[in-house]
């Protein structure tokens, strides 16, 4: 009987010890995704090291914690010019306690390059700066999964300084936002041999993208009315302008857009 008593006591102690190491506090799931608004290059390779979140825990107003989430794959050189038509790169994923994310920093490496006609052109970061901090405001609630979107706008990030020989200025231009309250514009253009630049314009602000190999493009935007301007980048075809309303949580799918010849 004494042996049974001691055995039960030992098992109870093990259960208590294991419970002390278990964190059952309320959490939210945070997914960090990278998308691209690409320029007209064959490919743009960017080295992704990870992201750092500015986090203010509940009941600790004014206390900002820095939480670094590494990009886990061994090959950290990513062709971000392929992130079009709804394709996104999962950069990091983590459970987090309740609180507010007040900012996000994309941490890059130095192995960045542009490829054009099989030629490689290095993209040097201005001043050697590898960290790009962006404002963000997101309150985390228990049991909710959140998408944090980093939009890397290559159209604005890469400028041609000299065309012959080709010289480039690389100044990463990004925006960050939560997927909460946003809506999508999805469309397809033809002929697919054309690689148009597509702009969603609202007042004095605009964002741009290109199509993938199937002619598909996608914008993720705040609710509102936008002018969608499609520049065929081909002098044989006419440009196109559309008015599109974006509703939160809804994908607005446009009829196929066929470019007309001049």
UniProtKB/TrEMBL annotation:
Domain of life assignment: Bacteria
Name under which the protein is recorded: DUF4382 domain-containing protein
Organism: Algoriphagus oliviformis
SUPFAM superfamilies in the record: Starch-binding domain-like (SSF49452)
Family annotation (InterPro entries): Carb-bd-like_fold, DUF4382
Residue ranges constituting the DUF4382 domain according to the UniProt record: 28-162
């Amino acid at each position: 009987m004494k042996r049974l008593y001691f055995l039960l006591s030992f098992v109870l102690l093990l259960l208590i010890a294991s419970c002390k190491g278990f964190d059952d506090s309320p959490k939210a799931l945070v997914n960090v995704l990278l998308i691209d608004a690409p320029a007209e290059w064959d490919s743009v390779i960017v080295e992704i090291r990870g992201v750092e979140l500015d986090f203010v825990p509940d009941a600790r107003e004014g206390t900002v914690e820095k939480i670094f989430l590494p990009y886990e794959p061994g090959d950290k050189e990513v062709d971000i010019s392929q992130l079009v038509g709804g394709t996104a790169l999962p950069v990091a994923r983590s459970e987090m306690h309740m609180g507010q994310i007040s900012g996000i920093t994309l941490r890059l490496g130095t192995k960045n390059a542009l490829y054009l006609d099989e030629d490689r052109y290095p993209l040097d970061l201005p001043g050697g700066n590898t960290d790009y901090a962006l404002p963000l405001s997101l309150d985390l609630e228990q049991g909710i999964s959140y998408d944090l979107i980093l939009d890397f706008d290559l159209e604005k990030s890469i400028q041609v300084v000299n065309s012959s020989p080709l010289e480039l200025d690389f100044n990463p231009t990004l925006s960050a936002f939560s997927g909460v309250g946003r809506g999508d514009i999805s469309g397809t253009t033809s002929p697919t041999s054309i690689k148009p630049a597509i702009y969603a314009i609202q007042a004095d602000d605009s964002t741009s993208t290109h199509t993938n190999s199937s002619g598909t493009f996608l914008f993720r935007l705040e609710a509102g009315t936008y002018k969608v301007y499609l520049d065929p980048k081909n002098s044989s075809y006419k440009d196109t302008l559309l008015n599109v309303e974006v509703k939160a949580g809804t994908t607005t799918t446009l009829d196929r857009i066929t470019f007309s010849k001049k």
